[in-house]
Amino acid sequence: MRRMVRRIAAVVGLLLCGAGLLYANEPAAPVPAAEIPAPVVSTGDTAWVLLSTAMVMLMTPGLAFFYGGLVRKKNVLSILMQCLIVLCLISIQWVTFGYSLSFGPDIRGVIGDLSWSFLKTVGGDPNPDYAGTIPHQVFMMFQMMFAVITPALILGAFAERMKFSAFCIFMLLWATLVYDPVAHWVWGVGGFLRRHGALDFAGGTVVHVNAGIAALICALVLGRRLGYERNISPPHNLPVAVLGAALLWFGWFGFNAGSALAANGLAGNAFVTTHVAAATAGLSWAVLDWIFNGRSTMLGVITGSVAGLVAITPGAGFVTAPAAMAIGLGSTVICFFFVAYVKPKLGYDDSLDAFGVHGIGGIWGAIATGIWATKSVNSAGADGLLYGNPAQLGIQAVAVLVTLVYSGVASIILLKLVDWLVGLRVNEREERIGLDLTQHRESGYTIID
Amino acid sequence: MRRMVRRIAAVVGLLLCGAGLLYANEPAAPVPAAEIPAPVVSTGDTAWVLLSTAMVMLMTPGLAFFYGGLVRKKNVLSILMQCLIVLCLISIQWVTFGYSLSFGPDIRGVIGDLSWSFLKTVGGDPNPDYAGTIPHQVFMMFQMMFAVITPALILGAFAERMKFSAFCIFMLLWATLVYDPVAHWVWGVGGFLRRHGALDFAGGTVVHVNAGIAALICALVLGRRLGYERNISPPHNLPVAVLGAALLWFGWFGFNAGSALAANGLAGNAFVTTHVAAATAGLSWAVLDWIFNGRSTMLGVITGSVAGLVAITPGAGFVTAPAAMAIGLGSTVICFFFVAYVKPKLGYDDSLDAFGVHGIGGIWGAIATGIWATKSVNSAGADGLLYGNPAQLGIQAVAVLVTLVYSGVASIILLKLVDWLVGLRVNEREERIGLDLTQHRESGYTIID
Amino acid sequence: MRRMVRRIAAVVGLLLCGAGLLYANEPAAPVPAAEIPAPVVSTGDTAWVLLSTAMVMLMTPGLAFFYGGLVRKKNVLSILMQCLIVLCLISIQWVTFGYSLSFGPDIRGVIGDLSWSFLKTVGGDPNPDYAGTIPHQVFMMFQMMFAVITPALILGAFAERMKFSAFCIFMLLWATLVYDPVAHWVWGVGGFLRRHGALDFAGGTVVHVNAGIAALICALVLGRRLGYERNISPPHNLPVAVLGAALLWFGWFGFNAGSALAANGLAGNAFVTTHVAAATAGLSWAVLDWIFNGRSTMLGVITGSVAGLVAITPGAGFVTAPAAMAIGLGSTVICFFFVAYVKPKLGYDDSLDAFGVHGIGGIWGAIATGIWATKSVNSAGADGLLYGNPAQLGIQAVAVLVTLVYSGVASIILLKLVDWLVGLRVNEREERIGLDLTQHRESGYTIID
Amino acid sequence: MKYVIAIIQPDRLDEVLDRLSAKEIHLVTVTNVVGRGRQKGIAEVYRSHTEAGSLLKKIKLEIAVNDSFLEATIDAILSGARTGNVGDGKIFVLDLPQCIRIRTGESGSEAIG
Amino acid sequence: MKYVIAIIQPDRLDEVLDRLSAKEIHLVTVTNVVGRGRQKGIAEVYRSHTEAGSLLKKIKLEIAVNDSFLEATIDAILSGARTGNVGDGKIFVLDLPQCIRIRTGESGSEAIG
Amino acid sequence: MKYVIAIIQPDRLDEVLDRLSAKEIHLVTVTNVVGRGRQKGIAEVYRSHTEAGSLLKKIKLEIAVNDSFLEATIDAILSGARTGNVGDGKIFVLDLPQCIRIRTGESGSEAIG
Ligand SMILES: Nc1ncnc2c1ncn2[C@@H]1O[C@H](COP(=O)(O)OP(=O)(O)O)[C@@H](O)[C@H]1O
Ligand SMILES: Nc1ncnc2c1ncn2[C@@H]1O[C@H](COP(=O)(O)OP(=O)(O)O)[C@@H](O)[C@H]1O
Ligand SMILES: Nc1ncnc2c1ncn2[C@@H]1O[C@H](COP(=O)(O)OP(=O)(O)O)[C@@H](O)[C@H]1O
């Protein structure tokens, strides 16, 4: 009992500590709020954001199929289940208190207060702080889908070996103690990274860097799968992974172009850059595969496309189409070499390369935004290195660093906590039989039928 | 020959009888039409409803995959085929005369006349009776998708054993003689349940209760599958069922939020309640599964989500987000116990729980709307029990009852008629071999390839 | 070396020749530009076209699944890969120079110049020449998806036997030298077929006739698969093909109704006709299958639906819903008999009936538009045969013919060129083993796992 | 010892397994197979192209038994699998000189059960 | 009676079945298998990680025949399955002491055909 | 010659193949099977309906060897497949009178390897 209390105290202390440190980074002068249009609901903008929300919702099942097709048959349901449970669980968390923590009235730049819990005051009228032409509820919903998919991204790292109970607890804690504050810092009114001037159009830092580093920590803390890496079968169903990638790509239009929060030229720009980056990255991976492995592979193309989508996320509304090509190409080159050469050297088992794609790609994207951003695309943004403002690169780097450190440290703590509570990893017998049967008492497919 | 005439006469008589009885329920005073905005097409609203229509269209294939993944390999195509044929058949029925029956100029509160057949006068201008800001054609299309999916829902009940010819005839008759009138009663201008004040935002009664009770009748009339319940294999491909559930969830945003017929705060509210109910219900089923079966299951989560989506359908635009949680939770609790404990006792074989989920969930949803509805969400609606208007509960119950009785009785009659015409059920040999080969001369998958 | 130069010279000559000949068809008097609304971005229209773009994007993966489910297991990835590579490759081609070739400032009615390469001047403001109420970038994106899917359609013809390297080169050349000019002729400002008055609402000629004839040429030039037709297995996974068809149908709403480039009554009309034609054609194929093969088949229904969608494409915004039924019915009757009786007689191996469905269906659709078009649906269109303007039929026929001849001849030349460069077809051993392993070093599914 | 191989109709599997259990024969290995036999298959049709359809889905059982159990095994299979229709399948009995249990290394007739 | 087991290349199946039919050998059971042999497989690559790829897809045929049909069976398989490349597979012939037709209960050599 | 049939746990396949290679036994045919044995399966639950779950996924190996290799084969399988838990499976050894290599037509013990 005393041991428990001690541990909890330690955890809380550490978290506060971390928060304090980060808080110290905050720049002194508050940035004045942008001028806001009169809060009248526009049907066109609302239609677009509603739809974007639905599209981003579909990304979580999309991710489930992308990841699910890549694991072994005996674990396919465990992946689908984890994704869908995250969808259910975090949606409820968001409505109950998560949204308020992230976007509610600011407490010292670090976190929102709880005054918007259960969507109190979040209704049909626009909240001009966030989006002046769509109902506040719709903005809340759109943001919910980001809060859902971010933790889901992590699960690629510990696929095929985490206990389902541990998974549920970890996800809830992580969403609350990591995602919600980081989202507040970057996007919340008063958040310290927002005031700091960091550009993150659709969540490069909040979503991908954040999830990516947590994924790396998970892979390290949980350890490798049995038999890794010799006796791990290849993807059990690549067409399903392709389906997942297609749904991700489709949904990403909502993710990035929807982040304009209006159906205007900016949304159009984000739409174009998103697609161009994905296409360039997919094609580049095919070329690298051809050069280094003798053949272009399907898995390579979808991996590349996802890497490109990740990398363009923070800059989608700040860069031009040719810059998107450069960003897409860069993401593939970096991720390809990381996954092919660096990761095997390091020896950790990030089952589905959640860090290799989302972490590395996300860092590249945040930095690249600091290089190619231009006010000619988005006057509310900033110029980057190539447009005469090298400082932006530094700002971007700080945002990445803060996220890496906070998310990394917090993830370790949370994992240790969960391990101590219920144990993180299934036992060897369960891992051999597979998670579908042992964690869910189901099989993905019938054998004799 | 004489026998045939006699039977047909009997059938027609019964139908007329039934209609007469129900008509008697009609309240005396006609309700004045609501004020209607000037009929100018809004591009935003039109964009939203067009899209919602496309999303609801996708639900029918979604249902095909949801159901198709749950049956045995040898019957997977029969499910997909039935869903797609319904999509083709009822779309044509709708354009030719179905829409006119449901929404055309009212005949004594019971049915529309045929003056809108072949979309006569249904053009690009809004029809302010139904939707003042979108082309009438678009409203017609949106409603078509409801007319399509409702009969498709039924087929879960008689999966793996109905003759394809019987299926086609039954579906056409049911859509015409059951769906079209019920839709008219509840949604048509002049429909008696509409005038009665029943709340049904997006089709809880018209779609789910209606299809659910028909499903129960089908299961009873067709009898159990061979070998039920010991020798029925588990779902042959659960990932496909999950894909179906994901498409259903995605499409349901169009179904419910699209039913606002505009891209406004009401659509936003329906979107939020829809998602929240689905998430709560999915999670609750996982918890119940954990408690009662030792593990959370994938099938449980998707079943729960669908139950939640069903239950929120009638109230989506009338209740708040916290109420949606309560409704979602309730739907899972009720459906879980019904499917797990009541159904096995009753012993009928509703193959895919079309009644257990859509019927039971739909009834709960209609009642729950009478409990949690509030004018603060939708001034065009009504207050429910918890907002000081217990009468609404009664009104809801009457609408459910009328639907149960009419749809139940009519379904029995139609089934008997079709049985007499071509026979309802495949023979034993065909059932053993499977419907794919015997009804469609195809196999879902190759074995040696 | 000299041989090479000679060949290239010959090719270029031929191409120029072909272009010259076609150019001669051009009518003398330039048509005055239609009155254009003031270029203000409409959020509703923009939302609708953004979304339509996303939906059309999804059609390429949809096509991948449609085709992928129909081939043998050992080739499934090759199909998915080809579709996704086209998506990546042509998107980049389009942004770099393709869009400019198709829609850029006209050069003598034949082709656009390169002044819009890298999207120069293609920004957030509308281009009233093409769409006055949406950002020019959005129009460009929407058109991109057409440029992507058109070449992808062709690949059904040479499935299971083309070298991947040859595929990539051929696709790039075909998109540039066939698709881009043809798109310019029909849709580009100044294009000679556009001035000629040919009606092609959403790409019947540019997309389907164009791809269809190229497919036929490919099937002829590459020759039959080993063991055709006795030893070719049936579709390895029909449910996947159904998924593909469902995504195609869904996306086609964007394809056709999105081509209105606004969320208005015209979009509504195109939406209705699209759906009605697909439903009628799907159902008709089922009936023909029943009559001629004893059973309605799933593959038949999806083939029919796609044929109906193809056929309605050119007329979607010019004909009424009843006419759409006639067009859908006609497409099925024609395609059914062609695929069932004519094709086997001719003996070429169009693996997945790309010509039989897209070519034949597309020709029918273009002709049918000349029959049923009416200004009462679209005042910017023209009347057809049944509305007293038989000349339109001739205009349509000319557009089809020009496309058939140009695309056919150019495709032969390009194929010969590619054959000479890298060889078109895999060797026999590779064909036996399958393209997945030999072209991509991957397998779609694990066997032992 | 004998090695019994039986090819049966797919939907008779549960019945056969029950009958075997009833005779205390619990150990069985089951495989998906397709077979060509007297039974006429249903010719499949794809876009009006008719496939031969001669290979039908069957289930193969393999059961290693001591000689004394052979008759019971055959009886159980016959009673569970017979429907009287063409396509019911065959039982093949092979000699089995040696049998080893992997877990323990035991061999011969005590390993078999 | 003999129990013939043949492992062949997947794409030779149709040919072998035809040759068997030509010799009046209609009854066959077919299974999907994978095999490791002399034939070098194509090493698969997933995200630049190379898989051994030693197991290749093969088809297994099982044919129970009367002794007098043995040679015809072997000939038919050899002629249908041989491509001359490594990986063509093997034929194994086992003794089959007993055979029973499930539908009729007949046994021995009249049951086999 | 002997025809060795082994039923093993699915996740022991790689290990067994390695051990066989180490003893120069390269030729193997592998099949997916399900087996009922002493091992209790995990009962699956679908919408609260519990399935028996008695058939568990196993792998079947078939290896034809010359008599002199029999012991090495058995040893390799035993050492690679044994985990000591119920469900490890069985090895069955049948006599193999005849073996033919399809590619060359060679037969007997030179055909086997
Ligand atoms: N001689 C045989 N060799 C191999 N398999 C056989 C043999 N005879 C029958 N079979 C298998 O048994 C199945 C049923 O045989 P069939 O001739 O259709 O039925 P029946 O034995 O009732 O006449 C076949 O599909 C085949 O798989
Ligand atoms: N001794 C054996 N035992 C079991 N299976 C064998 C044996 N020899 C060959 N096979 C099977 O035959 C297939 C072909 O053998 P392989 O050595 O590649 O060709 P070849 O016989 O032409 O040299 C192998 O993949 C394996 O499945
Ligand atoms: N007598 C037998 N006949 C056929 N298959 C058997 C026999 N004994 C065991 N098997 C196969 O071996 C597998 C493992 O057997 P089991 O009894 O579970 O383990 P153990 O041999 O360790 O007691 C079974 O699932 C079955 O497939």
CATH superfamily of chain A: Ammonium transporter AmtB like domains
Tell the overall outline of chain D.
elongated
Bound molecules: adenosine-5'-diphosphate
Rg calc of chain D: 17 Å
Q: Provide the domain count of chain A.
A: 1
Summarize model confidence as the mean pLDDT of chain D: 92
Overall morphology of chain A: globular
Number of separate helices of chain A? 15
Strand arrangement across the biggest beta sheet of chain A: 1-2
CATH class term of chain A? Mainly Alpha
Strand count of chain D:
7
Query: Which range best describes the helical content of chain D: under 10%, 10-25%, 25-40%, 40-55%, 55-70% or over 70%?
Result: 25-40%
For the record, the count of structural domains of chain D works out to 1
Oligomer: heterohexamer
Distance between the termini of chain D: 11 Å
**SS element count, helices of chain D:** 3
Which CATH architecture of chain A?
A: Orthogonal Bundle
Give descriptors for this structure.
heterohexamer; A: 449 residues; mainly alpha; Ammonium transporter fold; two-stranded antiparallel sheet; 2 strands; globular; D: 113 residues; alpha+beta; Alpha-Beta Plaits; 4-stranded antiparallel sheet; elongated
